[in-house]
Design a protein that fits this description.
Oligomer: single chain
Number of helices: 0
CATH superfamily of the largest domain: YVTN repeat-like/Quinoprotein amine dehydrogenase
Order of helices and strands: EEEEEEEEEEEEEEEEEEEEE
Strand content: 35-45%
Distance between the termini: 45 Å
Largest sheet: 5 strands, antiparallel
CATH architecture of the largest domain: 7 Propeller
Length: 293
Amino acid sequence: VQRVVFTTDAGQLWAINTNGNVLPGFPVRIDGVTVSSPVLADFDSDGFGEIICFTNSAIYAFNHNGTLCNYFPFFPHESGTLFAASSLSPILADVTGDGTCEILTSTIDGDILAITRNCKIATGFPLTAGATISATMLANDVNNDGKIELFALATDGKLYGWRTEGVQTGSEGILWNQFQYDAAHSGCNSAVSNQPPIKSPGKFLSTVYNYPNPTAGPTTTIRYYLRGTAQVQVKIFDLTGNQVAELCDFNSTPGDNEIVWNVGNLESGIYIARVEARGEQQGVSFIKIAVMK
């Protein structure tokens, strides 16, 4: 299923199909002023295409169904940096040689950042160009030595280049290597999908947690991972066994999903959430949620 993905000046990320219908989970809110066109790639190797974009204040990575990828967004102020104030797009390439691609972008000081899938600055970075980067970077094996080179044009008129530890084998090692994906600037990555990937061994329902935890309200988000389509029911109990809430999602999709629980009318305390998924398979999980007001 093909998707068209775009951002708006109102701070929203949209995903629609080729019939013009908005896909489930969209639009989603992104804080700050959008300064890049979205990038689509299977960033976390889960078989789905993720959507990556950045604003003047953060890097966002979203799953195919509009939920945030684990650990994101990345806030540059947490690392003492600020993004270049220009409409540059991130690129995705394995520049560390660990077999996974990093998100590459730049700061106003001319530093090149490589952000890992767990939202950390990669070892060996930042690289320094000495001036603000003026165009979207390029990653490619230009000399056919099997290693990925990285190039950046800066405002001092110089083209900077680095030989990285990343290895390119065919299409492996680079997911999105330049502005708008390819030399034609098509912005079209036919390798990504929002169809269910081949199921790997593991629990049908897993990685269940909520954030923030503890929560001071008014809401907390219950997040869970599914290996297939399912109807999900969440029942929440206090420590005396009384049910205080019930939440349902009748169309949870494979991958990460979220349900928002409004705790505004509850007293402070510990609550138990029972999360049950029924679909191609079944799964049940329990988590503790702390409400502090």
